Amino acid sequence: MSDPIKIRASIKGSEGEVRVLMPHPMETGLRKDPSGRIPPAHFIIQVSLSLNGRTVIEGALGTSVSTNPLFAFQLKDVKAGDRVGVSWLDNTGQKGSAESVFSAS
C-alpha cells in the first residue's frame, strides 16, 4: 500500500493504549463500482501486534471490515520506551508493518 500505517502508543501508569490506522481499500469483491463492474476482493486477513519483539495479539479479519480500518488495543504492564509493532497480511499477499515507541500521555 502506498500510505504508511499510523500508530499512536500512549501510556498512563502501567496501562498502554495502541491506536493503529491501516490504509487499505478493504474491498469485498461483492459490490459494484460506479461503472457497474465488480472490483476483485482485496482485504486484510491477518493482523499481528508485538511488544518489544514478542507477539502479544494476533487476529483474523474478513470482508466485513471498513476501508482504512482503525483499531485500538489495550496492553498492561508497559512502560515508556517499550516498542510496539503492527503488521498485516492481505488476501493478495501484500504486507504492511510499522513500529512505534510508547510515550507518557
Q: What's the short version?
A:
The chain is mainly beta. It has strands at 6-12, 15-21, 44-51, 54-60, 70-75, 83-90, 95-101, 103-104.
How widely separated are the two ends? 30 Å
Given as residue ranges, the uncertain stretches (5+ residues, pLDDT < 50) are none
Helix content: under 10%
Cα shape: elongated
Oligomer: single chain
The Rg value, from CA coordinates, equals 16 Å
Helix and strand pattern: EEEEEEEE
Q: Tell me about the biggest sheet?
A: 4 strands, mixed
Mean pLDDT: 95
Look at the helices and sheets and give the structural class: mainly beta
Q: How do the strands of the widest beta sheet line up side by side?
A: 5-2-1-8
Number of helices: 0
- The strand count comes to 8
What portion of the residues fall into strands of 2 or more residues?
Answer: over 45%
Description:
It contains no helices and 8 strands. With 105 residues, it is mostly beta strands.
Question: Which properties best describe this structure?
Answer:
elongated; 105 residues; mainly beta
